[in-house]
Amino acid sequence: MSDFHVYDTTLRDGAQQEGLSLSVEDKLAIAGHLDALGVGYIEGGWPGANPKDTEFFRRAGDELRLRHATLAAFGATRRAGMKAADDPLVRALRDSRADVVTLVAKSHDRHVELALRTTLEENLAMIRDTVEFLRAGGQRVFVDAEHFFDGYRDNPAYALEVVRVAAEAGVEVVALCDTNGGMLPDQVGDVVSTVLAGTGARVGIHCHNDAGCAVANTLAAVDAGASHVQGTLNGYGERTGNADLVTVVANLQLKRGRDLVPAAALREATRIAHAVSEVTNVPPYSRQPYVGASAFTHKAGLHASAIKVDPNLYQHADPEDVGNDMRLLVSDMAGRASIELKGRELGYDLAGDRALVTRITERVKAMEAQGYTFEAADASFELLLIEEVEGARPNFFHVDSWRVITDSRPDEEALSEATVKLSAGGERAIVTGEGNGPVNALDAALRGAIGQSYPVVEKLDLIDYRVRILDAGHGTDAVIRVLIELSDGEESWQTVGVGHNIIEASWEALVDGVTYGLVRAGVEQSEQSEQSERA
Amino acid sequence: MSDFHVYDTTLRDGAQQEGLSLSVEDKLAIAGHLDALGVGYIEGGWPGANPKDTEFFRRAGDELRLRHATLAAFGATRRAGMKAADDPLVRALRDSRADVVTLVAKSHDRHVELALRTTLEENLAMIRDTVEFLRAGGQRVFVDAEHFFDGYRDNPAYALEVVRVAAEAGVEVVALCDTNGGMLPDQVGDVVSTVLAGTGARVGIHCHNDAGCAVANTLAAVDAGASHVQGTLNGYGERTGNADLVTVVANLQLKRGRDLVPAAALREATRIAHAVSEVTNVPPYSRQPYVGASAFTHKAGLHASAIKVDPNLYQHADPEDVGNDMRLLVSDMAGRASIELKGRELGYDLAGDRALVTRITERVKAMEAQGYTFEAADASFELLLIEEVEGARPNFFHVDSWRVITDSRPDEEALSEATVKLSAGGERAIVTGEGNGPVNALDAALRGAIGQSYPVVEKLDLIDYRVRILDAGHGTDAVIRVLIELSDGEESWQTVGVGHNIIEASWEALVDGVTYGLVRAGVEQSEQSEQSERA
After folding, report:
1. Burial class, A37, CB count within 10 angstroms (exposed 0-12 / middle 13-18 / buried 19+)
2. Which residue among A183, A399, A413 sits closest to B501, beta carbon to beta carbon?
């Protein structure tokens, strides 16, 4: 690895995101993931400014076993008009015993006057004193030059002076911050070049995505000579977020040939990005570059035959390099080639059987014409595939009938109640379930009715439910498509149901989802004998 | 406006997004929004390649009243080894009667050989013939040079030849496509410069976001001389999506001083982006640049006083220029202006009554925090406005209770049956209605029950119904938002309902929709006396 800094600020600037709130345990978990990704520096928070961050640094020393990363504490320069040693917030930075302290310093004259309410000269003294105090205690010091690009536009001489003063005081790197996020790449590149030429300081870059250019701005700074990049996992951050660190690193490493993190660690990026979104409880963004669920997903059936010959004609990078997968969507443009590829993805080699592929392709097309979609319902497609390959659909239970009732209640939310009559494992069951909606009620009744025969269904959870009206404008003839996502705690899968009645379409998707869950769990089909008895 | 082209491809390339599927009605609605945004060109789809797109172009001529935009049909060059005039797909482009046809042409030699399976020479002939055929029929022709940047890297001479041949055949603009989305801004800028210098063609740019640089790549192309930008609303598109057209336009117009769309139209951008996400049923992304709900949101505290003195110190652009609002997470600065504007739009002058505007703003905020949205539910907002202005909500009937039952039926679709008990016009009614879904059944029962008192409700039709699950991932605690559209045959209006139970949320929207229909019809509220009798 080179001396280039990959500096993560998920735990500090990322945590500024609206609706994101991290406990100390969350922060420790994320720090572990960041280390596995191979970043060089993890900014853990602001010890002294809030008790959670103080505790994080206290526990990090004992509990984190970092292999790659160095922990950095974030803080501000001393207050105006006092000694650094007398400022309790500065002392807390020293007490954090972090190897690196990153100090935020104002570099925009108007902000010094309006937010700090002090003089430009005193601001420079605050930087100098604080850096020297921390350096004297043995800590390495970085500086975040806040609002640098806006400041440089309004008063270039002062902005440069801030960098110079910091460097002279012993700062290792001055990260130029586009705090308001409005810069465009050419501006960032020009300013970084000027700062490097004018100060001799080592320069870093910290970008926000307000103009949709955080990644490109970071690259422009690196092209101009910056050798320290800041960013956050999944681009978390205030407003539109910070530069997405994985995208930045993947671009630099895979497209610019820079050696920033171990290749094996980068191959964990997709897993890590998703694991962190489990910790933050912010749903993953499927269109996220490199690691998004859709990032290497292709729809057009047109190209499927060419994709088979050379997938690299249709992808900008090898998804394996970031731990992602190429995925083909079965869509109404689908042809034989994409069905074959999709089969291979699911572990079925269909290539040898032309008649089978034709049959599946035609069935998919006919169902899609009715309103089904398989691109977001892999599990329904796999059940169809099993049915065509093995001659019968997996069949664990036989439903006689169901009914669901929803009643208004005065001064309370409405209540739904469902009754399902079915036979499973040779036993007939009539079970009623309640829910705060008709689908929850049906789900409860269905799983109640088959739970005795298949206890594994108790682990399943209905985690998402989507409804789409097709042919809107046709009033009561509208076709309704329901997508349901079930999870067994480890993985999740989606199924689809279609019909004129929303409840019936939901029921179809639910039955598919539970059936797929039983297939996945390796349950034996005890219902087949029952079925033949009936026949 | 300059001659610069703002070219939208939401309806064609945007619709390639995983999980996005647009009906003809959806496409017509989105085209109306795009026109309101002031784009120059709307690519409507591929007539001839699928019946939905053929129908879109057929209906667009009659139903769309475009003020700014020109409609473009997308299609491919003729097949190898035949005349353009004999290719039914090319003929369909002419028959679409679109003013502009945008032809996709291969410009990467490997793709010509592997995907088209023809010679490099024949590919050039296919471009020449198809362009000349369409030009002879009086249509303007643009070309999308597919995989241009990868093609240029592998075989620059051939890629340039494609541009030259297209320009010589009479193409107005050749859009260079980063189809795989992996380019970085410096590469894009260099190639665009070279193409402009080497061919004399007018150059456009079409970018995807696979490396997180779609917006920056588009800007780099414009800086190098491209004068036609393609993109999609909300950055919809395959994989990681296309360049977000609003971000591109806002950057060029607000930061580069280019005059691309009317300033008043750009001030509608936030509303339009959200309205379109209601049509596509893709949840809006709160961190989206310029138009995201969080795009101008600040965690107040530290900087609050400085923000009050000069908000521009903390924002990269004026949120009003894109119709967004600065929002402080702990205080109340947002909304008032837009509530006033909205009131004026609906015919209520609220400007004189500060307390009233504050009350409405706070109520809207509280309801939005629960999951309501009024962007696509004008009728619900107007009912709320009437309630606050006049002291009481329009009230034509009093509901005692409702119930809906859905039953499976062997070998038939499920049937729903609803019973509503209410009093209207002094009469108590208990009416049961059937439907092929629970909402249709409730609609039938509700209108049956009030129809005797208010015969005008027989004219109303339930024409659209949309469901969105908020807080997906929270399982049974999920909040459900229902949008309903009713029509009286002349105009239509939308209402919103929110709750944990999908049926109850639908009922709320339905009651609002019917109530609004009665207000619209000028019906007198005979229920008020009945209400007071009960009290």
Report:
1. buried
2. A413
